[in-house]
Design goal:
This protein is an alpha+beta fold and 193 residues long. The protein contains six helices and ten strands; from the N terminus they run E-E-E-E-H-E-E-E-E-H-E-H-E-H-H-H. Strands 1, 2, 3, 4, 5, 6, 7, 8, 9 and 10 form a ten-stranded mixed β-sheet that branches.
Length: 193
Amino acid sequence: MANYFHNGVGVTPRRGDLLISEPFLPDPNFERTVILVCENNEEGAIGFILNKPSMVSLGDMFEEFDPFDKKMLVGGPVQRDSMHFLHRSSLNIEDGTKIGEGIYWGGNFEQLKILVQNNMVSSNDVLYFLGYSGWAPGQLDEELNENSWIVSPSATANQVFDLDPELLWREVLKKMGGRYRMFSNYPTDPRLN
């Protein structure tokens, strides 16, 4: 397993890595966010913000999920009218794409609905997203060169599914240690320091 933590030139995030926004990233779409990279290739990159709750619950969008009152997350600023999901491998959902150990993206949505309706899914087994975060070819590399992101390798299922989204940015940086631990304590407004 790679042990790189980097917020500059030379690290290309791979599927399953985390992008952590630097403490004072000025873009409100990505302020203090943690993004799971689901694809990064010559066509660009795609990922989902793991710690930005929306005001919409799954039952608001799909009546089949009505009793399952799980809040959806804002996956990013691209196509906010689209819905995506990440799930644990233990659900065995067909056609999902493996992102990391125990983490899958998408798959057979009808199968997921049946699992939910039969109470075979815990609220910590699946994350639902409105929209996604996307980068054109070379765009993410440019942002890395500008030190907008810190790359942490190989997200764990615990980080993705179990940590409180409100604490995720801080907890991931703390776990990285060193100067990143210091970043985790930076105030949101640098004037308060």
